[in-house]
Specification:
single chain; alpha+beta; Calcium-transporting ATPase, cytoplasmic transduction domain A; Calcium-transporting ATPase, cytoplasmic domain N
Length: 653
């Protein structure tokens, strides 16, 4: 937040750009309002059309020795030109800069003074049209964000003192309960207290398939409740919802400009004064030193003055970047600055955290090996009975596996206790049973061989036994994410090196890497060591880190582009990463890299076209082949239209 931040009078939030914030969150942003703001241009165009009609129909009406067409042109110049002149004067007064509006005003006055009334009027009108085209591109992108915000309902049913009140979400506090009926949108972030339903989360995650939600599951503001009545305990106030956070971060992203965008802005600062100086030389040198007609060269100088307006050139990059970021946000990908769209294209290495990123982090039992007379079914039953009292991540898959084999049957466990660092134990029918890692028992050669085999296959091994005797081995395996292999193949085809980091042992890491097609992996990495790995890799090029955004936060911040997985609902993930996949869908990385490629291609097209057309028109001006209306019609309106449309159709490429 900058030192120039201001407080919003409506929601008391402190924002960097108050006018943008007010327009986006508190004012109407519709196509009707956009056209209403364009009424000055429409009126100017209508008057010029009337002037053209009087000329075509050869209407012979004069007032004060002026033909009616000239009077209409003069009115058009005043209606369109006075606001431009006022805007330019205020810019000169407040910021001491001579802006683009001022250039057009000077060119129009010059054209008017040498008798080119029609061209002066067309110049003003077409310039106003060009400016509105640029405004429209911004309007479209801002409207997309506004549509996201409008997904959150304006009224919510809150349960207070056993009665239901319908009030604005802004007036509901954390800890209160809201009721959401089928077909309604969730008003605030929260956890389901009662009821279950299918929830369409596409507004947040970009995932088109609804998710089944039950008591205890998290839901987000703006998501659609499809088929069940649910009661939701509010966990975040309206202004802090995930939806509001996404919009705010996309808004702030425009401050983080790409190198190309910074270059365009720097270039424009020099381009305009150079062309103005050239226009001054063209207007005076032929007249002063070669005795040429002053009005002839002044007209050409005015054309150059119009061509010095860098409007389409300056807007060519930001309009494309904003379009790309907004459309990505709709697909559940949050990009926190155009600088990262450009940088992701230049990445040399992508580092993946294994658990929770390349794999789901959800283990499942894949095999049970008996080391005694006990059947696998009985080993699962006793093991799950012990695990019922444990909160270890591997307890749940063992319990679920036993349920699949034995239903809800289980043994009562007494004297349960945790054996720090190795496992747990408890008494069942007067006998002590233990379950834990291989260090919990003294193992014979055959058992160690089986453990080595399972470990080499990427499995985690749990040993179960009674007293001091091991009775069985349970192998569990983490599930690879859908699309993980496709992402790795895509990166390798792109010439980007994928590397896997994991805290697992060498054998497990090697097995997962082989299954995914990853050539390089680093095993036995502790969370605090990931930062050192990233720093070493950065010595050889740009590095992207893909992780969960919580445990990997330092590495995400340190990498050149940090990408957090499953960031919906996690403020830490959204704040620490440069990009965030709101859903746990790793395949969206492919979309991310392809979008970066497309975006930078469009940026180059827009920049080259803007400069090229201006340069060509400037050269043709010296041969008398360009008129004032052509300069603004092609150089400004035409190019503004081109770069805007080129950016807006980015998604269809």
């Amino acid at each position: 937040m900058s030192r120039n931040a201001e407080d919003c009078p409506y929601c008391q939030r402190r924002v960097d750009d108050l006018s943008d914030h007010l327009e986006l969150e508190h004012e109407e942003l519709t196509l009707q309002s956009f056209f209403f703001d364009s009424r000055n241009i429409i009126l100017t165009g209508f008057i010029l059309l009337l002037s053209l009609i009087t000329l075509v129909l050869e209407v012979q009406i004069t007032i004060l020795n002026l033909h009616v067409s000239r009077i209409l042109i003069g009115i058009g110049i005043l209606i369109g030109g006075i606001p431009l002149a006022k805007s330019s004067f205020m810019e000169l007064l407040k910021r001491h800069t001579f802006d683009v509006d001022g250039l057009v005003v000077v060119a129009s006055i010059g054209a008017f003074s040498i008798g080119y009334w029609g061209e002066a009027a067309v110049l003003i009108f077409l310039f106003l049209v060009a400016e509105r085209l640029e405004d429209y591109s911004v309007f479209r992108s801002r409207r997309s964000l506004k549509e996201l915000l409008e997904l959150s309902p304006t009224k919510a049913r809150v349960l207070r003192k056993d009665e239901t009140e319908k009030i604005a979400p802004e007036d509901i506090f954390i800890g209160e309960t809201v009721i959401v009926k089928p077909g309604e949108r969730v008003p605030l972030d929260g956890d389901i207290e009662s009821g279950s339903s299918s929830i369409d989360e596409s507004a947040i995650t970009g995932e088109s398939l609804p998710k089944e939600k039950r008591p205890g599951d998290e839901v987000f503001a703006g998501t659609l409740n499809i088929d069940g009545l649910i009661k939701v305990k509010v966990t975040k106030e309206s202004q802090d919802s995930t939806l509001s956070k996404i919009v705010s971060l996309v808004e702030e992203a425009k401050e983080k400009k790409a190198k190309t965008e910074k270059f365009v802005n720097r270039f424009a600062r020099y381009y305009t004064p150079v062309v103005i100086l050239l226009a001054l030389i063209v207007a005076t040198i032929p007249w002063l030193f070669f005795d040429h007609q002053f009005t002839f060269w002044l007209y050409r100088a005015l054309i150059l003055l119009v061509l010095s307006c860098p409007c389409a050139f300056v807007v060519s990059t930001p309009v494309t970047m904003v379009s790309s970021m907004t459309k990505s946000a709709k697909k559940g990908i949050l990009i926190k600055g155009s600088v990262f769209i450009e940088k992701i294209k230049e990445i040399d290495t992508v580092v993946f955290d294994k658990t929770g990123t390349l794999t789901t982090g959800d283990f499942s039992v894949t095999e049970i090996i008996s080391l005694s007379q006990l059947a696998a079914k009985e080993i699962a039953l006793i093991s799950s009975s012990l695990e019922y009292s444990s909160d270890h991540p591997l307890a749940r898959p063992i319990i679920e596996h036993s349920k699949a084999l034995n239903g809800d049957e289980h043994y009562d466990v007494e004297e349960f206790r945790s054996l720090t660092g190795i496992g747990i134990e408890g008494v069942i029918d007067g006998k002590i049973y233990r379950i834990g890692n291989p260090n919990i028992f003294e193992l014979e050669y055959e058992a160690r061989q089986e453990i080595a085999r399972m470990t080499s296959e990427g499995k985690t091994v749990v040993v179960f036994g009674r007293e001091e005797k091991p009775l069985g081995l349970i192998g569990l395996e983490d599930t690879l994410r859908d699309g993980a292999r496709d992402v790795i193949d895509f990166l390798k085809e792109y010439g980007i090196a994928p590397i896997m980091l994991t805290g697992d042992n060498e054998s497990t890491a090697a097995s997962v890497a082989e299954e995914l097609g990853i050539d390089r992996y680093i095993a036995n990495v502790l969370p605090d060591q990931k930062l050192d790995v990233i720093e070493r890799l950065q010595e050889n090029g740009l590095v992207t880190m893909v992780g969960d955004g919580v445990n990997d936060a330092p590495a995400l911040v340190k990498s050149d582009v940090g990408i957090a997985m499953g960031a919906a609902g996690s403020d830490t993930a959204m704040e620490s990463a440069d990009m965030a996949l709101m859903e746990d869908d790793i395949s969206k990385l492919i979309y991310l890299f392809e979008t970066s490629e497309k975006t930078m291609k469009v940026v180059k097209e827009n920049v080259v076209a803007s400069i090229g057309v201006k340069f060509a028109l400037a050269v043709l001006t010296f041969f008398g082949l360009v008129t004032l209306w052509m300069a603004v019609g092609i150089g400004d309106v035409g190019m503004a239209l081109f770069v805007t449309l080129n950016a807006l159709i980015l998604e269809k490429r």
